[in-house]
Design goal:
By secondary structure, the chain is mostly helical. The chain has helices at residues 2-22, 38-63, 73-95, 103-120. The protein has one domain (2-120). The longest helix has 26 residues, at 38-63. The relative contact order is 0.15.
Length: 122
């Protein structure tokens, strides 16, 4: 059960992280933000990143084997990276229609899945 909660928290964390890091690139299309300066964008992104941390920190605390969780530190990091890339691809395909997912991206993801396999291999 801790592993499911950990992964769920990491997914939520990565949604907010992706919005904080890349969501502002679409702000110019929103009337409220079309003239926002860099400082405003940074503060908005920082506010979104707060929610990222509200999910990321508990996920790592709960999931870390040193705290009774099911994952080693390296396993937590690899899980987080794979979730980050999956979240980013979904985000970019939904919100940035001019971005395409190509064969070399699929090969890169395959290597990441292999990395997960080898990190979890005993």
């Amino acid at each position: 059960m801790k592993s499911v909660v950990t992964v769920g928290l990491l997914v939520l964390s990565n949604v907010f992280m992706t919005l904080a890091w890349y969501g502002h690139l679409k702000f110019k299309e929103l009337k409220w933000f079309e003239n926002a300066g860099l400082v405003s964008i940074i503060l908005i992104s920082w506010g979104l990143a707060l929610f990222e941390y509200c999910f990321q920190v508990p996920a790592n605390k709960l999931g870390f084997s040193g705290n009774g969780g099911p994952f080693s530190l390296l396993q937590l990091k690899v899980i987080q990276e794979v979730i980050t890339l999956i979240t980013f691809v979904i985000f970019s395909l939904l919100f940035f229609k001019n971005e395409t997912f190509k064969w070399n991206h699929a090969v890169g993801f395959l290597f990441l899945v292999l990395a997960v396999y080898f990190i979890f291999k005993k």
